[in-house]
Amino acid sequence: QVQLVESGGGLVQPGGSLRLSCAASGIIFSIYTMGWYRQAPGNQRELVALITSGGSPNYADSVKGRFTISRDNAKNTVYLQMNSLKPEDTAVYYCNAINRGRDYWGQGTQVTVSS
């Protein structure tokens, strides 16, 4: 049974930081590309960052220099460190795992950036 469980979301002031975690089970975690996506009400779901099985990261232009994706294969967990947060970062953040056409999603965690 595949399960991706996000945690770490919450309310933060502009300029603040949060670290999201996604714990995976039921997959051979080390061979999956892992990604973080986000979706705000009325918006399309967009890719925020991804990290390959080899550890190579990619970022959306809107978060470059502020967010860092990382993975710990020993813990079957992918992280998203979010710094210098802006109100436009407010969204539900989703964890994604993909390999050879298999695609899995977490339930999402809410991030709200507001003063």
Radius of gyration, whole Å? 13 Å
Number of strands: 11
- Inertia-based shape: globular
Strand content: over 45%
Number of helices: 0
Major sheet characteristics: 7 strands, mixed
Distance between the termini: 40 Å
Quaternary status of these chains? Answer: single chain
Query: What class do helices, strands and sheet pairing give?
Result: mainly beta
Mean pLDDT: 97
Amount of helix: under 10%
Order of helices and strands: EEEEEEEEEEE
Extract low-pLDDT stretches: none
Describe the structure.
- There is one protein chain.
- It is built from no helices and eleven strands.
- With 115 residues, it is mostly beta strands.
- The strands form two sheets. Strands 2, 4, 5, 6, 9, 10 and 11 form a seven-stranded mixed β-sheet that branches. The chain has a four-stranded antiparallel β-sheet with strand order 1-3-8-7, with no helix packed on it.
- A hairpin with a 4-residue loop joins strand 7 (67-72) and strand 8 (77-82).
- The chain is globular, with a radius of gyration of 13 Å.
- The protein starts with a strand and ends with a strand.
Summarize the structure.
With 115 residues, this protein is mainly β. The protein is built from no helices and 11 strands.
Give the arrangement of secondary structure elements.
Blueprint: E1 3-7, E2 10-12, E3 18-25, E4 33-39, E5 46-51, E6 57-59, E7 67-72, E8 77-82, E9 91-99, E10 102-105, E11 109-113
Parallel strand pairs: 2-11
Antiparallel strand pairs: 1-3, 3-8, 4-5, 4-9, 5-6, 7-8, 9-10, 9-11
